[in-house]
Each structure stands twice: as structure tokens, then as C-alpha cells.
Inverse folding.
């Protein structure tokens, strides 16, 4: 199998991962994962190891959240996604880094949930160069 084929396969698996998460199709979601998948959240220093535990973590996650994929970037051995999550009126962004195993399943996921913040006062002199959106 070529690097291009592996890259395309992992990208499709990650896209299916997000689609099945949004659909709450937990059996299809589980099918995208390696048995020994490891999910890491560096900001909270949490780790979930194993397919069953990770599926349960998502299935039982509180609130009625929804997601939309903003961007997917794939290269040999890894895929990165930028997502927009909504929970009621609240909107959050997430960056997720995926690696795959030899079977094309997701082996690792590392999630970053950046919090929005106001520009620091030390950059006030640069306001004329920026546009707020």
C-alpha cells in the first residue's frame, strides 16, 4: 500500500469518525477505532485507553453537543481536524490530531480545546494592523 493510499484511507476513517459521532451511531463510531486506541487531552491531562472506554466516554458525554468539520489536513501517518462544536448557544473550536494503525483504524487522538481570549494589552500598539471578527 502506498503512502498516498494510506493517507486517503486514514482521512476517510477520520471523516467517518466525526460523522458517526455527530450521528450518535456508536457502533459505527467504534468501527473506526483500533482496539487499543489512546485518547489524550493535554489541557486537562486526561487519557482514555481502549476502544470500549473511549466509546463510553463519548456516548455518555453530557449535554446535547453538535459538531461541524471546518478543515481536514492529511499526510502520511496522520490527520488533523479543526472542528466547530456547539452546545446550546455556546460555540467552541477543537483541533484534533489522529494517527492510524496498520489496519487503517484510528490508533491515537490528541484533542486541544483552545479558549477564546481578548488580545493582550501588550499588543495595543498593533491594533491598527488587525481586524476583529
Amino acid at each position: 500500500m502506498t503512502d498516498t493510499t494510506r493517507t486517503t484511507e486514514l482521512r476517510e476513517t477520520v471523516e467517518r469518525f466525526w460523522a458517526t459521532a455527530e450521528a450518535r451511531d456508536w457502533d459505527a463510531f467504534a468501527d473506526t477505532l483500533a482496539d487499543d486506541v489512546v485518547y489524550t487531552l493535554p489541557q486537562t491531562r486526561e487519557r482514555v485507553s481502549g476502544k470500549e472506554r473511549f466509546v463510553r466516554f463519548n456516548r455518555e458525554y453530557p449535554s446535547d453537543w453538535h459538531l461541524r468539520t471546518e478543515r481536514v489536513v492529511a499526510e502520511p501517518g496522520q490527520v488533523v481536524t479543526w472542528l466547530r462544536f456547539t452546545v446550546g448557544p455556546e460555540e467552541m473550536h477543537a483541533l484534533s490530531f489522529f494517527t492510524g494503525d496498520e489496519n487503517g483504524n484510528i490508533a491515537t487522538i490528541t484533542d486541544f480545546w483552545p479558549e477564546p481570549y481578548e488580545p493582550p494589552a501588550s499588543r495595543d500598539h498593533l491594533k491598527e494592523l488587525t481586524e476583529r471578527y
Summary: The helical segments are 3-23, 26-31, 51-59. The mean pLDDT is 94. Residues 75 and 91 are 28 Å apart (CA to CA). The chain has one domain: 3-115.
